[in-house]
Amino acid sequence: MKVLVTGGKGFIGSAVKQWLDVHGHEAFAYDLPNDIRDKDRLIEETAGLDAVIHMAGVLGTHELFDEIDKAIDVNIRGTANVLEACRHNGLSFVGITMPQVFPSVYTATKVAATRLASAFHHTHGVPVSHVRAFNAFGPGQHHGPGHPQKIIPTFAVNTWAGRPIPVWGDGEQTVDLVWVDDLAHLLVDALNHGDDAVFDGGTGVAFTVNETVAMVGECAGITPTVDYLPMRRGELPTHIVATGEGWDRLDWRPEFRMEDLKATVEAYRNHPTV
């Protein structure tokens, strides 16, 4: 199968491309300057392919309140362009979405993008599947200026540097930590469906943020300190965990493994702390 991966040089996108390559597919990364806002270029680039796994987008929770126009332009209009290319060239589409837990700009744009994909499926017959990603982690996840603060890189870098770990809220909200290669596997498997199915990209195991702090410290062999801060814009205390939607269609399921977390924490040992 010939598959275009938008955002294929990003954290999850590169894992998806690698999974496709290893398992005998032809994968092509589509990133800037091949911007998803250029519909004509997308139609041209997807001619002769079989599918698109759509990973490109503007990330952030509180950050996107300062970039609303860009978030709408990339996450919604860009997705519409990808779907138009799929319709024009007869491709399948797999999109990544998220649990609808935060009153944020990012959540709003991802909900709109998912609804657009469903509309293209039901109106134009585009084969569509969705993967609902929870808290992906793994070596190589970006951290530092210009990138949204993701939980495991932030906790690991601060732990190794001996700085307090920032926790927004009381830390009793939960996360569902999913290994990036499991999420990539799921995104590729979703290509086998196309009937507007949704697959939970989580493990079904909930950890509180406080428990996650302790686990990162255990992996590093350091007892971290915590700086409790007010919740940020677009965030509310939540208790999220995958419920297993779509797993009955698979012969496997994502799992949380402590050795994956340990490998990830170790990968940030010498990360720049600026």
Which fold name is given in CATH as the topology? Rossmann fold
CATH superfamily: NAD(P)-binding Rossmann-like Domain
Helix percent reads: 25-40%
> How many domains make up the 3D coordinates?
1
Mean pLDDT: 95
How many beta-strand elements? 12
Distance between the amino and carboxyl termini: 42 Å
Which class do the helix and strand fractions yield? alpha/beta
CATH class: Alpha Beta
* Global geometry: globular
**Are there runs of 5+ residues with pLDDT below 50, and where?**
none
Q: What is the number of helical segments per DSSP (H or I, 4+ residues)?
A: 8
Shape-level CATH architecture = 3-Layer(aba) Sandwich
- Outline the biggest β-sheet: 6 strands, parallel
- % residues in beta strands: 15-25%
Q: Strand-and-helix sequence, N→C?
A: EHEHEHEHEEHEEEHEEHEH
Task: Output the radius of gyration.
Answer: 18 Å
Numbering strands along the chain, what is their spatial order in the largest sheet? Answer: 2-1-3-4-5-10
What topology emerges from the helices and strands here?
Layout: E1 2-6, H1 11-22, E2 26-30, H2 39-46, E3 51-54, H3 68-89, E4 92-97, H4 105-124, E5 128-133, E6 135-137, H5 151-161, E7 165-168, E8 174-175, E9 177-179, H6 180-189, E10 195-201, E11 207-208, H7 209-220, E12 226-229, H8 258-267
Parallel strand pairs: 1-2, 1-3, 3-4, 4-5, 5-10, 6-9, 7-12
Antiparallel strand pairs: 8-11
Helix pairs in contact: 1-6, 2-3, 3-4, 5-7, 7-8
